């Protein structure tokens, strides 16, 4: 942390000095607001370069965070020079990078474990890739624990056979989208969270970084037939709509 503060102060002085020189020779018009808009993207780039170099020299660092900060800072700078349009709030749009990073990490693995197993009637998937669709007519809803590296989940509960009991469904994924269609006759509650992305549950929305949303239908507590969703994504979108 001390090193980052030192780097930040150093970059601030360097950037302000360069801009003052350019202002003195008539290249730009200097003001602090303008200076700051250039300083913090450069800070991200420098920190990213340090992490990347430290990783390559095998003295710590991180190639993932290093490359991400370099890209993020570069995009911000390109916006400042009016080459592209990209603001700090657009960071969540970079979530597909997680899929790329996962691919690179798997290249270095000798073996990836993919396992499907049942536990007391539960349906469990661990460390899988690809899409999961539950759309067949009269598919039976059972307790589920689904984990995915990357891929989408699609549930159509209007086509499902739903027993008269409380059914927990847990979905965890690094990257992907979760879409759920619910009939209005079925009660449910949901806890949904994303590190980067969007949550939309029956019109209630939350988007950006580290967002979560909790929702419960009015008759959930008194209903015999109901579904309890727990959905967590590192990056992607979660959407629940009535059909």
TrEMBL record:
InterPro entries: Cell_wall_LiaF, LiaF-like_C, LiaF_C, LiaF_TM. Residues 8-112 form the LiaF transmembrane domain. Residues 129-240 form the Cell wall-active antibiotics response LiaF-like C-terminal domain. It comes from the Bacteria. The chain crosses the membrane at residues 7-28, 34-53, 60-78, 84-107. The keyword Transmembrane applies. NCBIfam families: LiaF_C_term. This is Cell wall-active antibiotics response protein.
């Amino acid at each position: 942390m001390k090193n980052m503060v030192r780097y930040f102060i150093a970059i601030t002085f360097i950037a302000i000095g360069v801009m003052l020189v350019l202002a003195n020779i008539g290249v730009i018009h200097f003001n602090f607001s303008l200076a700051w808009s250039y300083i913090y993207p450069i800070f991200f780039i420098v920190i990213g370069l340090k992490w990347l170099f430290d990783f390559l020299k095998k003295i710590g660092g991180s190639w993932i965070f290093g490359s991400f900060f370099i890209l993020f800072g570069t995009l911000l700078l390109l916006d400042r020079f009016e080459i592209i349009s990209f603001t700090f709030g657009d960071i969540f749009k970079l979530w597909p990078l997680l899929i790329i990073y996962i691919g690179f990490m798997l290249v270095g693995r000798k073996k990836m474990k993919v396992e499907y197993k049942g536990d007391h009637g539960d349906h469990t998937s661990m460390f899988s890739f690809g899409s999961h669709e539950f759309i067949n007519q009269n598919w039976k809803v059972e307790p589920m624990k689904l984990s995915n590296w990357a891929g989408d989940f699609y549930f159509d509960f209007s086509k499902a056979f739903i027993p008269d009991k409380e059914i927990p469904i847990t979905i965890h994924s690094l990257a992907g989208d979760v879409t759920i269609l619910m009939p209005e006759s079925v009660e449910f509650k949901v806890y949904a969270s994303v590190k980067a992305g969007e949550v939309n549950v029956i019109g209630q929305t939350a988007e950006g970084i580290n967002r979560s949303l909790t929702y419960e239908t009015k008759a959930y507590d008194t209903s015999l037939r109901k579904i309890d969703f727990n959905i967590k994504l590192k990056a992607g979108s979660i959407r629940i709509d009535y059909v």
